[in-house]
Structures are given as C-alpha cells and as structure tokens.
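[job 0412] stage=fold_complex status=start
inputs:
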Amino acid sequence: MISDRDRAMMARAIQLAWRGRYSTHPNPRVGCVIARGNRIVGEGWHERAGEAHAEVRALSQAGYEARGATAYVTLEPCSHYGRTPPCAKALIEAGVAQVFAATTDPNPSVSGRGLDMLREAGIRVTEGLMGDEAARLNPGFMKRMRTGRPWVRLKMAASLDGRTAMASGESQWITGPEARQDVQRLRAMSDAILTGVGTVLADDPSLTVRRDEMGDTGDATDPSRQPLRVIADRDARTPSTARILRGGNVQVFCASSTLATGPAQDLAALGVRLTGVAWKDNGVDVSELLDALGELGINELLVEAGPTLAGTFINENLVDELWLYQAPVFLGSTGRPTAHLPIEVMADKVQWKVLDRRQVGEDQRLILARH
Amino acid sequence: MISDRDRAMMARAIQLAWRGRYSTHPNPRVGCVIARGNRIVGEGWHERAGEAHAEVRALSQAGYEARGATAYVTLEPCSHYGRTPPCAKALIEAGVAQVFAATTDPNPSVSGRGLDMLREAGIRVTEGLMGDEAARLNPGFMKRMRTGRPWVRLKMAASLDGRTAMASGESQWITGPEARQDVQRLRAMSDAILTGVGTVLADDPSLTVRRDEMGDTGDATDPSRQPLRVIADRDARTPSTARILRGGNVQVFCASSTLATGPAQDLAALGVRLTGVAWKDNGVDVSELLDALGELGINELLVEAGPTLAGTFINENLVDELWLYQAPVFLGSTGRPTAHLPIEVMADKVQWKVLDRRQVGEDQRLILARH
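[job 0412] stage=fold_complex status=done
writing structure:
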C-alpha cells in the first residue's frame, strides 16, 4: 500500500536529486530521503562523481535514527564496490526497515541486484513509486544503458519565421540575454556538445559552459568540469587556433582516411582526440557517431549545429528533445533556415509534441519531441 | 472621484459591448449599464446596425428607475439623428443624473458633441474611465476616423520552421480544427477580407464566414452578413468561376488601365465592383489600397494573402496586428516562407511585441504588433 506520505517523500527525494543536474557527470542524479513516519531524519543527494552517494549522505545525517526507518531513493541503490562501497550494504548496516526505489538500475547486468541484496537482508522493498518522474532525472543514463546511445537534445535559436541567421551568416544575437543564459544551463546539463566544422569555421564558438553567465540556479556546479566538445569534421579542417580547442577536452570525428593525414596529426598534436567514422553524401553517419559517443560514456548530448547537421538529426529521427528558442522577430525570407530538411509533401511533415513551453525573457522556449 | 464601483460598472458595459463583436458592422461595438448605487437597473449593447443603440436598450430596461441614475457607456452617446434618434437626447429625457463615457466619438466632426449636449442639460459627465479597454472594442472604427484607413490584421498559419506550404503549394492543413474555427471567428469580426489573385488562382478559397464552423461563442451573429471580399488583381485575372465570387459582395482592385479591358468588364458583369489603383513592381500600392478601403467604410481588414502581399504589408509597416497560428510541425526548408521579406542585416530585423499568446487546440496563436 503506497500512501500520500510515501509519494511526498519520494517527490522530495526527486527534488533533492535535481540539485545535481549540473554536477554529477558521468554519474546519474540521485536523491534519498530517510523518514520515520512523517518525520524526515536524513536527506541526501549525489553531488559529484567520487563524492558520497545520496544514500550515504542521507544515512550520515540520520545517524542512529536510520534504524527501523524508511528510505526513499530515486534509483536502485548500487550493489558493487566502485569508488565508494555499495549503498545497498550501507542501508542494510544502518538497519533501515523499508526501501522505496523509484527506478531500478537501467544497466541490464546489475539491474535488480541492489534491491535483491536489500530483500535478502530482510528489508521490505517497493519498486516503481514515481518511476516516470525519477527516470526523467537521468534520460541519458537510462537511454544509454538501454540502447548504447546518448540522449540527444538539439538546440535551435530561431525567429518566428523560422530563420537562424541572415543569408550572410550574421546571427548574433537572435535571442535575448535570458535565453542565452538558459543555453549556458543547458550546456552545463550536458555530457558533450556536438557541432560541425562548418559552424567552427563560420562562427568560431567556444561551446564552453561559462558559469558566470548561468545565473544563480541554487544547484551545485562543478567548476572544473566542461562538457566534452565534439566536432564532426570529415577532413580535420578545424583550425589549430579555433576557440573550441582552448582548454582541451575535444573529440573530433573525421573520415577514417583522414586519420593519417597532416591536418589530423596536427590536431592530435594539440591533444585533440580523433576517431574515424563513416561519412555519407550529406555528412557524418550520425547513427555511427551516436554509437561512438555512447561508448565514450556520453549520457546527454547537446547538438548545437548548423542547418545541415541539425537537419540530418531531425530527418533520421534521432532527436529526443528539440529545444527551440523562438525570438519574437522576423528575419526575412532570405535568412537561413533552421534545418536543411527536404520535405516534398504535407504527409511527410515532421510532427512535434510540445513537452514544455515557457517564456524566457522576451523569447519563448519550446521543448519538443517527435509525435 | 472615480470609485471601484464605477470601474466595475464600466467593465460590465465593456463586457456587454463585446457581445456585438461579430454583428454590429459597420457600427461600433457599444455597451451601456445604468445603475443606482450598486444596483444595475438597466443593461444594453448594440447588436446590429439599424437596431436600437446600447443606451436605448439599457434605458428601456431601466424604465422609471433611470431617473437620477448613473449611466456608464463605452462610447460617447451620439448627438445626431441617424437611423435612430440621438442617444444623448434619450439619456436626458430619461432623467439620468450622471454619465461616465469611456471614450469620445473618434469622428473629429462630432467628437464631444454628445457629451456637451449632456452637460448642457445639467448632467454630470466624466470622460475616459477605462478608455484604453473601451477603445480596444473598436480599433478599426477608432483608427479609420483618425487616419482614414482600416485596422489591419494579417493572418498567417505557419509551421515552427516558418513555412506556410510545401514547395508545390500544398498547404491543407497546417493547423488543426480549433485554429481553423478560430479563423472563422476572426473573419466574422472583420469588415473585409483581402487576398491576392495569386491565392485565388492557386487555392480558390471562398473567404466567407461559415457560421456553423465558428463554434458557439455566446455572442450575437448576423447570418445575413458576409465581410466584403477584396482581391488585389492588377489584370482582372480572377476567373468567373472562382469560389470567392459566389454570394457576391466582392471588390477587385486592379490597375486603372485594366478597367476598360474585357476581363474587367466580365467581372463587372458578374456584379463585382472594380476600382483602379496604382501598382508597383512588387504588387499593389498597399497605402492607396488602404485609403480606398477606408473610404468604403471598412473598419477592420483581415489580410489572408500569399507571401508576396503579406510581405509587402510587413515591409511597409502597415500591419496593426499579426495573427500567427503556429502548428507544432516542421514543413522543411524547401517549404514556402510565411512572407517574402528581403532583409539583409540583423539590424533590419522585424521586431514584434507579443500582445497575446494562447493555445488553440494543438496550435499556438500569437497576436503580434510591431515593436
């Protein structure tokens, strides 16, 4: 029997987990509440890889009051020795009587083991309470464990008439400062940011998280962490002076035949990692790219690319969330389209489901998923 | 001294006036409340041209209780004998003690006369209470009296990537049934609907109000009234079989030199009115067209046109309200743009102010004005 109290406690655990939205990479975001009846005796959330897990922090706050208490965790407690001892063991040793786990570990090879360990120790275990809400904490972690590929967010900033730049390429700024701040947060949520060499050559973006531009979110940050910068660059044309290369942590996907060339070796000498993947007429083989990024442990990928690469992602139905920032302007019919997307007949139109719509300064932010 | 009670009474009068939103043409929408203290003793609104004015209806409901009462009117009472006797006279004869008028008559040749008539009869008169709200009842009436031109609403139905049709011209349907119902209401609000001959030839629209598709609005309708259909058609190419010609009440603006040609005379023989106006390289001289429509008594003009005519209206800054219905779809980069609008540099972008944004079925309706 699940009570409203149980739901409220799990909601609190989920809320705590979100505090790690910008900082737990590559670990999942996890929250934990320990309660005796209506009284919360311990709360915890995972803040950074290598630091204490949510359960351990909540248990440490609860102290002796954990004995006989109920623990609410957003993700199945781990059962293995990693950088920290298994959380399932910690819960058992603390003497908790009951555990609610919103989700099981999505990794098929360990899924259910933590809960089994608890059950074997005589703890009452309930799975799935607010499971959908908890799964949303870690869409990339969940998807990568299931499919081997990261969760893909495609970001676009466009006018009401669907343009992202003038014909000349001029594009700064379409959206207002609030939307640009929001994009900084979106980057901070991401494990990696993907762009194409065309954008590197045209706009020379750094694609870094600038924490001073994120605003005060109240959430944890990890100032030492930058998302992996990823460039689709068949011929290794990224200039050695490109801003995106500053600070390192850059991965270039080029054609396999490019790997042995001078330009590729020049980039490698700068510390850039290069991987050969397949290319098609209209650009990189995006499916292969996503598989490779999954193997690199990328959970959440942000695509900030020009119309060609963006169009490929949409066209091949590989976008999990389209984050569309819409400015209340018209850029005119000669402006650049949001995505190169050849559609001949109305029946082939791309239909979106609006997951979220909100005002961000003067602009509107839509989060869309394929219908 | 204006009290909250006065504001509440005027708000009610404005609410009543809106019931005529689809039916008072060419008259303005007007509401009237007659109150004794907190007690409303009479309410009225103008429903159709030729029928009783708002004040007369409210007075008739109030009966002898109008003596010594306060009248709240959204528009200055008329002072002239038209199809009905002057309302100012009716208020005087009924013995009201005080009149609040939200707006004065925008017609410069009669403005203030009705209020003067009341004052001369010893009635206490207060102008301007909720004047902005009341003026919004009749944007076209107000604007035409001031400038000689109608209020211009440009309607567009577009995708999130700013397309209104496929390259082939295929466009049915971008938006959902709720948005199309909303457009029927928008048409019913309008005195005239303007399109270009290109749209007539390509889509053969009827551009009529289909009252059975309006839904139940709770407002009055005038089943016998259709907005004037207006076609910008330089060479009188509108086919005699075009749907837009059915039911009559069509005005074609052509080149003056076209008037004497066979095609023009064929249209005239079908009862179509033709007027010669100036044409430029990119189409009709829109300023001249608006002057001509103002002379025809058109208060509120709805533009439902293709990208060329729509682009001219935007480019020449002649749009008072852009009604943009946005469907949550992408039609692709080969689709037709919302408006032909050549803009070279970001500094020349068209900046909109969002007056209203709401969900209409699956679509989003934005009402925009130039910033």
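[job 0412] summary: Chain A is about 25% helix and 25% strand.
[job 0412] exit 0
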